[in-house]
């Protein structure tokens, strides 16, 4: 796993750290190295989960099929995480990973 220059990890939730380790294995299965492009840094919506350490953005360049990688990651992480392929077709295409636990009683 590599971090894009400037990526900050201070305050990231342990669940996101675990998710990044799992993402690294998914990327490896798809023949690519995982590059984290944003965690608590960068510019996001005011209410973004990035600012609470609950989200990360993952580079998809190098993946033959980013949609398949996103799908595999979604399955690997389970229902407490959102995995979204964002900005598809744009230069800043990436996968947004977010820890968003669903409460069930």
What does this structure look like?
The protein is an alpha+beta fold. It contains 2 helices and 5 strands, in the order E-H-E-E-H-E-E. The protein has helices spanning 14-29, 66-77, and strands at residues 2-3, 35-38, 55-59, 81-86, 94-99. It has a 5-stranded mixed β-sheet, with helices on one face. 32% of the residues are buried. The mean pLDDT is 90.
Topology:
Layout: E1 2-3, H1 14-29, E2 35-38, E3 55-59, H2 66-77, E4 81-86, E5 94-99
Parallel strand pairs: 1-2
Antiparallel strand pairs: 2-3, 3-5, 4-5
Helix pairs in contact: 1-2
The total count of strands amounts to 5
Overall average pLDDT: 90
What class do helices, strands and sheet pairing give? alpha+beta
Sheet-strand content, in percent, reads 15-25%
How many helices? 2
Radius of gyration, taken over Cα atoms and rounded to an integer in Å: 13 Å
Largest sheet: spatial strand order = 1-2-3-5-4
The helical percent reads: 25-40%
Oligomer description = single chain
Order of helices and strands: EHEEHEE
Largest sheet: 5 strands, mixed
Query: Per the principal axes of the C-alpha atoms, what is the gross shape?
Result: globular
What labels describe this entry?
5-stranded mixed sheet, 2 helices
Short précis:
By secondary structure, the chain is of the alpha+beta class. It has helices at 14-29, 66-77, and strands spanning 2-3, 35-38, 55-59, 81-86, 94-99.
